[in-house]
TrEMBL record, chain A:
Membrane topology, as annotated: Multi-pass membrane protein
Pathway where this protein functions: Protein modification; protein glycosylation
Annotated Gene Ontology cellular component terms: endoplasmic reticulum membrane
Subcellular location: Endoplasmic reticulum membrane
Keyword Cell membrane: no
Annotated family: Belongs to the ALG6/ALG8 glucosyltransferase family.
Membrane-spanning segments: 6-27, 346-365, 439-456, 463-481, 501-520, 532-556, 562-585
Organism the protein comes from: Escallonia herrerae
Keyword tags: Endoplasmic reticulum, Glycosyltransferase, Membrane, Transferase, Transmembrane, Transmembrane helix
EC number(s) on file: 2.4.1.-
GO MF annotation terms: dolichyl pyrophosphate Man9GlcNAc2 alpha-1,3-glucosyltransferase activity
Pfam families: Alg6_Alg8
Name of the featured protein: Alpha-1,3-glucosyltransferase
Signal peptide (UniProt feature, chain positions): none
From TrEMBL, chain B:
Biological or metabolic pathway of the protein: Protein modification; protein glycosylation
Pfam families recorded: Alg6_Alg8
Broad class of where this protein is predominantly found: endoplasmic reticulum
UniProt record similarity statement: Belongs to the ALG6/ALG8 glucosyltransferase family.
Gene Ontology molecular functions: dolichyl pyrophosphate Glc1Man9GlcNAc2 alpha-1,3-glucosyltransferase activity
Name by which UniProt lists this protein: Alpha-1,3-glucosyltransferase
Length: 605, 389
């Protein structure tokens, strides 16, 4: 079993981090190999992630890897890919994976536009429908693939039908195109919903014993094989073309793998969600620059990714990666707003959000208790606002204010929601006003922190989520990552003690400290502020406190009246440090916008 | 060769080495709960043996099948450790009660002794690469300290090769600096720790003889001290064991055995009367019968002669032109010959030539290439060795 974590780490997390590093350091004036290696070491050798994933045993590396991939995609202006990857991350570690099928809307909208593009420019543009969820779509896909090489009669017929309609729509202008897109959404989501219902029937059939698990599993697997082969056919067909096919191939593989890793073993899955997984929306679009012929398609040619990418962040219910959702959303929305016709974009966004929400939840809404059961599975509110001892606002203040006794569950939920949103709001607003790549990384950190500190039912392991953007920012903020890692590890110390992981804890922390202080120093230090003596005294004092608490926790027995006394102390100390880090990061993000690094307005095509 | 002039340079050197060794130590700590081989119990038994019995009985005790087959200095080293072990847990050093004892605290303690003996290796590398340029030096250190073979054998499989190789490197360093007497003496000390290092003895002998220029002084230089009594000799040179170890080390005799098997098969097909051998290759010498079906029998004497023959070209070179710079290379060559033609060779013996070769590897591309192939080649059987267990 440990090999599965290790292999998913190696196959998913490592390439994603490498991609991020390449994008992050590309084009910088000082590409110094020493820094790159150091930065990679900071991200990959983070002791918290290693201890939790490989010690305690979890699969965080998958969702974190996909998130890093999404971040890298955003930094390289590939918003489509970013939204895809982030959706994959969202849907990992989540029981309601049929949310994935919401991507239908995403696919459809972009497919519609691509189809139109194809009609405008003839068969120059390769249009690949990324979804195999819809069999009809699949057939069109294959025909579409073949017609670029050998237009056969059936293909031509399809072309004519579709082409005619497409041309009519194009002639009608933007409004017509928009209607056509919406119609396609409705049509294809209808098909999607049918598959959902079918799968739900299948689940019930198995539960009531009418269909055997083996049969379902076999059919599930054969469907996956069919889908996989369709995917691979698509890839090979596309690879017939030259330039960048390699890139598309790797991207496809990446997404395909991302889909398959989510099949967390030994879980019987809804068939529909398996299909949904394979709709990985890779856009193998090659756009020829034939802008001189025919009317230019306005918003159709560009990807409508940003808005739709943000869509998925909203859709995310309570999942781990949802911690980053506000950052992704605000950044992408901010970018959208800088394009022409912001109102239209936002309106599109709103409609699609509502539409897909309806589609996704439709099969589950009908029997109301079924719906409630699903929701309760997703968000186990009855477990309470906190569990165990986590360096959270609610848990820490519960020493003084007994939240569980004071307020009802409902009001607690509202309160935590309000607190989370309000603490998240400043960074979101900043990104909306002035989206920038650097700010985006800080926004990730801030949104993750606000969720960690104020959200409902937070685990100690959730500290991994703020830790990830902090490690991505290691180059900019070396002191921050060290400080945060120290206290993140410390906050997990009781958990690791229970798992008998003290020796690996010490060893990995030692390795981390050594890596932070490589002899010869980092060749390009970004320590713009020098520490005052007061600051260094304070940090030394706090470190001493934490070390002594480590030793006390291991050696001294707590008094019988308060068996969790030391846990509470640890939690208190870590909480104060996390709050300080969060405040610092927020301040830094705002200062960035004041230095006015703004993304340029995208040129209209 | 000039001394590092500034104190800051020395300080920097030491900081780098300390950094690398601390990193290695942390990694080795992670390996504490890893698989342990029977060598773990072997060394524990030797701890108990040296702690409880008087010196005279160390080499004749039969309490456990794991008899003491290392020279006296190593036995003293184990005795030293047993004094501390006794404080950790008296059961460890008990001769009978401690058999197959393995509590978590003892495992940690025993692994820590290996880690604690590694600074000798670090000192050895430090001495040997003191005057090398920074990048090459750092690379050498990384190659030796982080050598996967060494880490696996020492910290997983459990042995004490680290500090023994450190002593070897100190001796080589002394020779390279021109301090022949010191180098020779340290080598003798090394032989007293582990006699398997004696394969390079001819090289040392010739080199010292020529370089030091006084014929008589280097004779009988401690090897006779090591091979003192017959009992000790018999214990230390287990010719009772077979030609090959249970897990075959990739040496010449493997091909010899394979050739023998192929020939037997072919000749049997052709109609000759081939008798199947009664003895096995990994077992001991069984009377008059030979483990080989067709080819002539191989005795320890034959292997010894072949090793000497293989080292011969190196000896001629050393005789003609004894350069201090080349001594590491020659010693590595000598160990590789010993590995290829020796009797009952473990794969672990490959460490003896890979580590010195790592020192040499940074000097040129040719050397680096040789090192690369050898270290990869040697690593594969080790991997198989670990996988089996």
């Amino acid at each position: 079993m440990r090999w599965t974590v290790l292999s998913s780490d190696a196959l998913l997390f490592f390439p994603a981090v490498l991609w991020f590093i390449i994008v992050y350091y590309w084009g910088r004036k000082r590409w110094l190999q020493g820094n790159v290696a150091w930065h990679i070491a900071m991200i990959l050798l983070n002791p918290c992630l290693i201890l939790i994933d490989h010690g305690h045993f979890q699969y965080n590396c998958i969702s974190l890897g996909l998130t890093v991939g999404a971040v890298a995609a955003i930094l390289s202006d590939r918003e489509l890919v970013a939204s895809v990857l982030f959706c994959l991350a969202l849907n990992h570690k989540q029981s309601l994976r049929s949310l994935f099928s919401a991507k239908e809307g995403f696919v459809v909208l972009t497919n519609g536009t691509k189809l139109r593009a194809k009609e405008q420019f003839g068969d120059v543009v390769d249009v690949k429908f990324g979804t195999a969820h819809d069999p009809g779509n699949f057939i069109v896909l294959m025909i579409g693939a073949s017609r670029t090489y050998t237009p056969t009669l059936p293909a031509k017929m399809v072309l004519r039908c579709d082409g005619g309609l497409g041309r009519w729509i194009a002639a009608e202008g933007r409004c017509g195109m928009w209607c056509w897109d919406v119609a396609q959404v409705v049509l294809r989501c209808g098909v999607g919903a049918m598959v959902q219902w079918g799968s739900r029937w299948l689940v019930e059939a198995v539960a009531s014993g009418r269909a055997s698990r083996q049969w379902v599993a076999v059919s599930q697997n054969s469907l996956m094989i069919v889908l996989a082969s369709s995917r691979w056919t698509q890839i090979t067909v596309d690879c017939g073309k030259k330039s960048k096919s390699g890139l598309y191939l790797t991207r496809n593989c990446f997404h395909a793998f991302g889909g398959s890793t989510m099949n967390e073993n030994a879980k019987f899955d809804i068939l529909g969600t398996e299909c949904g997984k394979w709709s990985t929306n890779t856009k193998l679009v090659k756009r020829e620059k034939r802008t001189e012929t025919g009317p230019k398609l306005r918003w159709g040619q560009r990807s409508v990714g940003p808005e739709l990418g943000s869509l998925y962040k909203l859709i995310a219910c309570r999942t781990m990666s949802a911690y980053f959702a506000p950052a992704f959303f605000s950044h992408l929305l901010g970018k959208c707003l800088r394009r022409r016709n912001p109102l239209l974009e936002v309106a599109k966004l709103g409609l699609v959000v509502l539409g897909t929400f309806a589609v996704v939840w439709w099969p589950y809404i009908h029997p109301v208790d079924g719906f409630l059961e699903v929701v309760s599975r997703l968000a186990p509110f009855e477990r309470g606002i906190y569990e165990d001892y986590v360096a959270n606002f609610w848990c820490t203040t519960s020493v003084l204010i007994k939240w569980k006794r004071l307020l009802t569950m409902r009001s607690l939920k509202l309160l935590s929601l309000a607190a989370t949103v309000s603490t998240c709001l400043p960074s979101m607003v900043q990104q909306l006003r002035a989206p920038s790549k650097q700010g985006f990384l800080y926004a990730l950190l801030n949104s993750a922190f606000s969720f960690y500190l104020f959200s409902f039912q937070v685990h100690e392991k959730s500290i991994l989520l703020p830790l990830l953007p902090a490690s991505l920012l290691a180059f900019e903020e070396p002191f921050l990552i060290q400080w945060l890692t120290h206290y993140a590890l410390f906050s997990m110390f009781p958990l690791l003690c229970r798992d008998n992981l003290i020796l690996p804890y010490i060893a990995l922390y030692g390795i981390f400290i050594l890596l932070c202080h490589v002899p010869g120093g980092r060749l390009d230090t970004r320590e713009t502020h020098s520490f005052t003596s007061l600051r260094s005294f304070l940090s030394a004092f706090l470190l001493l406190c934490s070390f002594s608490l480590h030793i006390i926790y291991l050696t001294v027995r707590p008094p019988k009246k308060y068996p969790y006394l030391f846990d509470a102390f640890i939690m208190l100390l870590c909480f104060t440090q996390f709050v300080l880090v969060a405040i610092y990061a927020n301040r830094k993000q705002w200062m960035l916008s004041m230095n006015s690094i703004v993304v340029d307005k995208e040129k209209h095509l | 060769m000039k001394d590092p002039k500034n104190r800051s340079q020395i300080h920097r050197l030491i900081t780098e080495l300390a950094w690398l060794s601390l990193l290695a130590t942390c990694t080795k700590l992670l390996l504490v709960p890893a698989y342990r081989s029977t060598d773990f119990e072997v060394h524990r038994h030797w701890l108990a043996l040296t702690h409880t019995l008087p010196l005279a009985q160390w080499y004749s005790d039969e309490t456990s099948p794991w008899t003491l087959d290392y020279p006296p200095f190593f036995a003293h080293f184990e005795h030293l450790i047993s004094l501390v072990a006794h404080l950790v847990d008296p059961t460890i050093a008990h001769l009978h009660k401690g058999l197959n004892f393995s509590s978590p605290s003892f495992i940690l303690f025993h692994r820590l002794t290996v880690i604690a003996s590694d600074p000798v290796l670090y000192y050895g590398i430090y001495r040997l690469t003191r005057y090398v340029r920074f990048k090459r030096r750092f690379l050498t250190w990384a190659l030796v300290v982080g050598s996967p073979g060494l880490v696996i054998v020492d910290h997983v499989h459990f042995q004490y090769n680290g500090f023994l190789l450190g002593v070897l490197l100190v001796s080589l360093a002394a020779l390279e600096e021109g301090r022949d007497l010191c180098g020779g003496f340290v080598f003798a000390v090394l032989l007293s720790f582990k006699h398997l290092f004696a394969v390079a003895a001819p090289v040392y002998f010739v080199y010292l003889f020529r370089h030091y220029c006084h014929g008589g002084l280097v004779k009988g230089f401690g090897r006779l001290v090591v091979m003192g009594t017959l009992v000790v000799f018999r214990r230390m040179f287990p010719f009772g064991r077979g030609l090959c170890h249970a897990y075959w080390a990739p040496n010449f005799w493997v091909f010899y055995i394979i050739l023998d098997k192929i020939l037997a098969f072919l000749l049997a097909k052709l109609g000759f009367n081939i008798q199947a051998p009664t003895a096995s290759f990994t077992g001991g010498l069984v009377g008059d019968s030979s483990p080989f079906a067709v080819l002539p029998r191989v005795t320890p004497l034959i292997t010894f002669t072949m090793v000497l023959l293989a080292i011969f070209p190196c000896l001629i070179k050393a005789w003609k032109d004894p350069q201090p710079r080349m001594i590491t290379r020659w010693v590595a060559y000598a160990y590789s010959c010993g590995f290829t033609f020796g009797w009952h060779v473990h794969e672990k013996a490959s460490l003896h030539f890979v580590i010195p070769l790592a020192i040499v590897a940074v000097h040129s591309m040719e050397d680096a290439r040789h090192y690369f192939y050898l270290s990869i080649g040697k690593f594969h059987p080790e991997l198989g060795f670990i996988m089996h267990t």
